[in-house]
Write a structure and sequence with these properties.
- By secondary structure, the protein is α/β, with parallel strands linked by helices.
- It has one domain: Rossmann fold (3-Layer(aba) Sandwich).
- It contains 7 helices and 14 strands.
- The strands form 2 sheets. A 5-stranded mixed barrel has the order 7-12-10-8-13, surrounded by 4 helices.
- Strand 13 and strand 14 form a beta hairpin.
- The termini are far apart.
């Protein structure tokens, strides 16, 4: 069997995958990923028992039990570049033998559920509402670095996006990947569902203009007005497209659920951020375990 070189699969002296500092036994089959390190403890406070804790850089992990189900919570930090680290290393932790540096004979498939905060791009989606991402459209270009990306993407939606938004030729190709159908069906009940645009930054890439002006000044209006069959772009955030793309390439199931803390169309912002996130956590823990 092929052995992964030390420069490709970087391990600690304890044979833990380097950045996330995890072994296979530390990781439950259901993994909640969050951007904010402090949100890990906010979620694990709901657990009846915590088996394991570790942290390295921005990557904090708690694994424990909720409603008799073992769940891992892992912080990723912000952006698709951090999702690149987390998804590759999660898969390595559970599917590669750290001693022999070879693939395990049986593939372990994880359910990876991202709980995030987001800005709505549709006027009818209220602040504090929950949005489940049917697709992630990546404006960042990350997935284009991986062989086989075409096999997991919906290029028909991507091409419609380019045509409808006036996408500039110097911008990365906006790859589009679907959520896990199984997980989408679990989380969509009672929530808004739509395409999530994943931006490679918080300011210019999301249409914000302070001192620097946008190269796409009408970007947000273009996203709000985008239509493809029965789909519309519901919200903006910074991780989902990479999560969905790498999840499919690595054969894991992924879904994102975001609480809306701002409506970009109505210029409204939540007046209680912590309560908004608590609503998201409680809703999703219930769905994961029922």
């Amino acid at each position: 069997m092929n052995q992964f070189a030390e420069t490709e699969l970087i391990l600690t002296k304890e044979n833990r995958v380097y950045h996330i500092n995890l072994l296979a036994d530390d990781v439950a089959d259901d993994v909640i990923v969050v951007g904010d390190q402090h949100r890990v403890a906010q979620i694990s406070a709901h657990f009846s028992k915590i088996d394991f804790k570790t942290e390295h850089r921005e990557f904090i992990t708690h694994t424990g039990w909720y409603n008799n189900k073992r769940i891992t919570v892992l912080s990723t930090g912000i952006g698709t570049d951090n999702i690149d680290i987390v998804m590759n290393e999660l898969d390595s932790a559970v599917n590669i033998n750290p001693v022999t540096r070879t693939l395990n004979s049986t593939h372990r498939k994880l359910n990876v559920i991202r709980l995030g905060t987001s800005g709505a791009l549709q006027a009818d989606i209220p602040v504090n509402g929950l949005v489940v991402s049917s697709h992630g459209v990546g404006l960042d270009g990350l997935l284009n670095f991986y062989d086989g990306w075409q096999n997991v993407c919906n290029n028909t939606i991507s091409d419609a996006f380019v045509n409808q938004t006036g996408w500039l030729p110097n911008m990365p190709y906006p790859y589009c990947v679907e959520a896990s159908t199984e997980l989408l069906n679990i989380f969509k009940e009672g929530n808004f569902v739509g395409i999530t645009a994943t931006a490679p930054g918080f300011y210019g890439p999301q249409g914000r203009q302070i001192k620097l002006k946008s190269a796409l000044p009408n970007l947000n209006d273009s996203l709000t007005n985008f239509k493809f069959e029965n789909y519309r772009i519901t919200n903006f955030e910074m991780e989902t497209s990479a999560l969905y793309g790498l999840g499919k390439l690595l054969n894991h199931q992924c879904v994102t659920v975001c609480v809306i803390i701002a409506n970009r169309v109505r210029k409204e912002f939540t007046n209680d951020y912590k309560k908004s996130v608590d609503t998201l956590i409680e809703n999703c823990l219930h769905k994961i375990t029922n």
